[in-house]
Amino acid sequence: MTTQRPQIPAMPPGSGAPAPVSGLPPHLPPDPPAGGDHEPPLAGRTATPQAQTRRSRPSLQRVLRRTHLRLAVSAVVLAAVALSLVAWLALRAYAENNLLLIGRSLAYTAEAAVVFGDRVAAQEAIALIANEEDIFQVRVLDARNAQFALWRRRDGSALARVERMVADVALPGAVTLPIRHDGKVVGYIEVQGEGHQFFVFLLSGVSGILACLLVTFAVSNVLAKRMHRDIVKPLRALAEVAHAVRRERAFHQRVAATPLAELKELGDDFNALLDEFEGWQNHLRAQNATLAHQANHDPLTGLPNRAYFESRLAQALADARELGTHVALLYLDNDRFKEINDQLGHDAGDAVLVAVAERLRQPLREGDLVARLGGDEFAVMLPGVRQTSNAVRLAQSVLVGMEKPIVLPNGSEIVTTMSIGVALYPTHAEDANALLRAADAAMYQAKRVGVGTWHVAESPKR
Questions:
Q1: 319 and 244, same structural domain?
Q2: Does residue 248 fall inside a structural domain?
Q3: Which of 19, 162, 208, 337 is the most exposed place for a label (fewest CB within 10 A)?
């Protein structure tokens, strides 16, 4: 069995909210002292190219001639704080989700080592994944909560220690997941994040915010003391978008265009920052979906794995119990797989498994489910069947499909057969585990009769 290591995408660097760009042209004198309403005469002023460009749009300086300084600063700080808070909340939530997905992958990888008590194999298995991820420590515990294996990233520089301190405060703590084998908890795995990517993002965001505030305070001395009503509406719209993003994670919202040159520039930068967050969010969702698929599917055949199949089977039985319907289960085992694997090599064995998986998919209906349980064992779930004969017909169809030769990687061909056990809920069992056992026992009964046969489970004695 091979385990595909999930790749977790790196987090994008943040940036602070942009500062309004505004100021008095060098040829204009400063505003008169408080208490005087006299405007300086316009005679003798020379229009600069920058002033001529701004005449195409009303300048922010003209509209905010009487704007109070604190209102302008408050608007910028509100946008910066809102975006920073949104970024932190989103990163915290997605970091925890990533740890859970990585933990599931590690638990699946370390399952065999824990079952067989192989500490070295467990250490190597978790190291293969943890070395490439933003993880600080992974602990494997046995069923008695005693430490079974431990992987910890080597201590780095002083900066790495600072990153750990920041991550301990800002990011969620370690996550603990059970390690299950055949439905039983055989141990636990504890995963603790490193926080390097979050620290880089935090430094970028704080630097951007500080730079934005410094620029804002530098140009704020030239702003007017009162705000004209024409500027209130655009700033309020920006604040509402930031508020919606912070509370509802509505990254799709954008600030509407405004005729004011400076506010248009601010809105464009604000929207560009939201574009980055939205793209990062969509990318992370796609990666999470990939990790979830890897945790629930066999990497060789692409079929669902045992854990996913058992959960779907339990749900199907619950639905059937409520609706009064039946669920059929086929338990399949390749009759020659060990011989093929030993004599022709693992590549040939893998090719046989892939071909068998593809042939099992073909005769299924929509809503049926086929999975690889492990090794050369497969299972097919048929919800909504009316009687055992429907499942038997499918078993016969599968056996006929196996008569076609399988082409191996070296160009040769081989024919293999399957032994199939058939069980029906609720005729042969009333829960998922019992139904699997009944179908498994029927499969071994079919092997005793002869290869390439099927057998229906015996009805339990009442």
A1: no
A2: yes
A3: 162
**Residue-number span of the structural domain to which 379 is assigned:** 306-456
Q: Is 376 in the active site? A: yes
Strand 175-181 vs strand 184-193: parallel, antiparallel, or unpaired? antiparallel
| Residue 162 CB coordination number (10 Å) | 12
Residue 45 forms part of a structural domain: no
In 3D, which of 56, 20, 73, 460 has the Cα closest to residue 259? Answer: 56
Residues 6+ positions from 36 with CB-CB distance below 8 Å: none
Pick the closest to residue 340 from 330, 331, 350 (CA basis): 350
The Cβ of residue 261 has, within 10 Å, a number of other Cβ atoms equal to: 19
Q: With the CA atoms of 284, 287, 288 and 293 taken in that order, what torsion angle do they form, in degrees rounded to the nearest 10?
A: 170
Residue 244 sits in the same domain as residue 360: no
Q: Pick the catalytic residue: 333, 335, 368, 376?
A: 376
Type and span of the H or E element at 159: helix 158-170
pLDDT tens digit sequence for 130-189: 787 777 788 889 888 888 888 887 766 677 677 777 776 667 777 888 988 888 888 998
Residue 201 belongs to a domain: yes
Does 358 share its domain with 394?
A: yes
* Paired tokens of 57: 């749009």
